[in-house]
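Narrative of activities, Objective 1.

The group set out to show that a structural description can be obtained from nothing but a protein's sequence at a throughput compatible with the screening campaign. Below is one input-output pair from the validation batch, recorded exactly as produced.
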Amino acid sequence: MKNITFLAITLLFLISCGSGKSFRSFFNTYKNDIGVTAFQVPNFMMSLAKNISPEINSLLGNVNDFKFITFGEVSKAKQAQIIQDINAVTANSFTDILRSNQLEKTKIVSVKERGDVVSQAIIFNSTKEKTTVFYLKGRFDPNRLKVLSETNQFEKLSSKLTQNYQYSPKIPGFNNN
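Output recorded for this entry:
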């Protein structure tokens, strides 16, 4: 009887230690909030995103899963909660390759590696005016992700995605009504 109890407690401990916040849960928590624009980009939409710039085309050529969420202007408390939640996600087996925490702006590029290749990446930018989060799953060069983030390519992609969704009713699969 002691062995069964010990085994049950050990199993419960291992399960609780292994569970962390995932990006999917972060995305699902916020995607329905007022002022949020959220994309889960299916394969047929990848061609639209790849045409933004040669750098983005090069990056997205290896993407299997692409999620994007942007928050309009939020209160300081809401911004702090979003940052806390993304920190919980990146604390779950991710490695930061860039993290800048300033009063005006928080910028995080965090990755999961499989060998010497990045298999997942989270690119997070938060200011008082706007917060954006990209989630990419595929095969990436971590240095390239860092350079794209430092040169604001993800902000450009964010603007293009949002602009195309809001102003182009001819995009297949989007119903703006």
